[in-house]
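[Meeting: bench + compute handoff]

Bench side (C.D.) handed over the final construct sequence. Compute side (W.E.) agreed to return the predicted structure before the next meeting so the bench team could plan truncations. Sequence as handed over:
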Amino acid sequence: MRNALKRVVVPALTLAALGCGTVRVAVPVMRPAEFNMTAYHSIAVGGLSGQGHDVMATALEEALVKSERFKVVDREHLNAVMRELQLSASDLSDPNKASKLGQQITANALIFGNVDERYHEERKSESYQDKNKVTHRLNHLNGHVVVTATFKVTDVSTGALIVAKTLEERRDDSHDAVDSQPNGIDREGLTKEARRTVLKKFLASIVPHKEYLDAAFFTDSDLPQLETGVGYAQHGDWKKAQDTFSNTITDAERNPKINSKLLGKAYWDLALAYEYSGDYDKALTTVDKAYQLTQDGDMLAEQDNIKRLQAESKRLAEQSGNAEVAREKN
C-alpha cells in the first residue's frame, strides 16, 4: 500500500486478499528540487567539456529556458566574454576565475561540467540445426551506450560551488538474424535517449517538477458510493471526493451490516483524498482511523508517505516563494 513517492506500480495491497477491489489513480504532484535555487534568477551555461558536450550544452540551455525558472544568458555572448577573458570551461572550477567571469555577465549562477558518451558493440554467432537437420548460423548483435555527465553550478559573485551532480544513463538494443547479418544498432537514437534522461534528472535537481504518483483506492460492491468518490479523484476534484467518502462513512457507520474492515476501506479512501489535496494533518488522522478498523500494517505505514509529502510541500513552498503551494492541481 505504499503508493506515494513512486512512479512505478506499487505492490499488491494486503487487504486485496479480503476480496476488495482497488482502482489505481495517477496523481500529479509537484516535487521540490534537490537544490534550492530560489536566490538565483539568472543563469548561464558556461561550457561543458568531453564527448558530446556541445549537444548537451545546447539541450541544457533550451531546457532551462523552457522551465521558465531562470533568465538564461545567451551562450554565444557568454562564450565571447570567456574568449575575451581567455577562460576555458575547465577554468570555471577555479572560484576566482568564475567570479571574474561573473563580473562581466548578467547571470548570477553558472553551469559547467563534463560529458562522456561511450558506445560499445558485441557480436556473437552460434550454429544450430533445425528439425530437418539443416545447419544454420544465428548471428546476434548487441549495442549499448553509456552517457555520464557531471554538472556543477557556481555562484558567480563568490565563485562558490552550490551544486555538484554526476548522473549516468545506459541504453541497450540488440538484433538477431539467421544466416545473415543483423540490422545495425541505432547508436544515435540510444545516445539521444540516454542524454535526454540525464538532462531531465539534472533539471529535476534544480527545478521543481511534476511527477505522477500511484494512489490505490478501494472499491466494494457493499459500498458503491466509493466508486463515485474514486471517479472524482480520477478527475482531480478532491473536494467532491472528500465529500463523497465522508458521506459514505456516515452512512456506513449507521448500517449494522457494514463491518469494521469494510468501513476501514472508506476511511482509507478519505485519507488519500486528504493526502493528495495537501491536507496532511487530516490525512494522518484519517489513515490512523483506517488502521484501527482494519489492523492492516500497510495502512499505518502510509503515514510515512504522508509525512514525506508534507515535508516536501514545505520545501516546495520555499522554492516557489509561496507558502500555500504544496502541489500542482489539475
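W.E. noted at the follow-up: Residues 297-320 form the longest helix (24 residues). C.D. will use this when planning the next construct.
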